[in-house]
Amino acid sequence: MAEEVLLFGAWASPYSHRVEMALKLKGVEYKYVEEDLANKSPSLLKYNPIHKKVPVLVHNGNPIVESQVILEYINETWPGYPLLPKDPYERAIARFWAKFIDDKCLLAIFKASWGEEKEREKAAEEVPEFLNHLENELKEKRFFGGESIGMVDIVANFISFWVGAFEEAFGSELLTREKFPKLTNWTHQFVNNTVVKESLPPRDKLVAYLRNRFGGRNVSK
After folding, report:
1. Which candidate, 100, 122, 104, 99, places its Cα nearest to that of 112?
2. Which helix (H) or strand (E) element contains residue 28?
3. Kind plus residue range of the DSSP H or E element containing 63
4. What is the pLDDT of residues 31-69, one digit of tens each?
């Protein structure tokens, strides 16, 4: 019986594109199903009845949800390109930074950009602090994963691509070369990787989408 791999995603979702990157790095063939999040399909609701969100990976009929959980599943299921280090300690450190990006960085960036005034003020102070932690973690490495792209790089795709699109859409400055030279260099290396390029949405389309969706809200400059 042929292996069946389905990915339910949304074109503007950085979380969906994380999974696409991982599958392509592993060389796994899959079928992509685009979801309309304003009119969710019966299949999405069936496979992710609790959160009702993308991405959802369905492997031989078995659904896996939450992007970081899916990345771990992909790494453990298909051999070849490693998304996490072999060493247990280094693997634990990678998981820490991946969690830090989702729990701290992305949340702060969102609040600084689109939160209520009180939230925005606090988050605007936190964003540079959190980005500076990532700047220091990069050290002299090409990627967070060392010389090759790993799970932390994939999870940080929002910072490398979506933040830039947001800056273009609203004229804001979150990630500048003066403040974060290593992160800026990493961003350039990451988005210009062949596999990553194939797994990203068109930038002009994303910029237009962000302007349309968030243009009327308070945007931090």
Report:
1. 122
2. none
3. strand 62-65
4. 999 999 999 999 999 999 999 999 999 999 999 999 999
